Amino acid sequence: MIRLVLLVAAVAAGLPSQHARSQADWQTLNQICGKVVENRSSDPNSNDNLKNVSGAVVQLYRRENGLCCSDSARIAETKARHSGEFEIKNALPGEYWLVVESKNRKYTMAISHKASNDDYGSCSDHLFVIRQPGTFYLLRTINVD
Description:
Low-confidence stretches: 1-19
Number of domains: 1
CATH superfamily: Immunoglobulins
């Protein structure tokens, strides 16, 4: 079996991190879970130096009016374990903002939570990557037989 890691989406530094330009900028997940990691590589195109982010605060906000998050209802909050893993259970399907706070900085990502049997990956396949100075993106591992 071959494991491929694909860069699925990126919110580039300098763009308004609290506004997804279109639905195409959103990540679709059937489970709101994964691992928070920091990319410490000096090469902005490399994902070779990922470190777990222990204790990051992970929040889920209902998407309202297209902006995150002052006017939005916070649905859930959890902390990443020592391994960087987190899970938000019992969220209803809908449009959300996923917010990760680490080292006094907030990273936001627009997500669409779908209750479906489509394979959007399991929790262990989702790496939510933060990179200074503000980039936040999702890597998904895809297994190929």
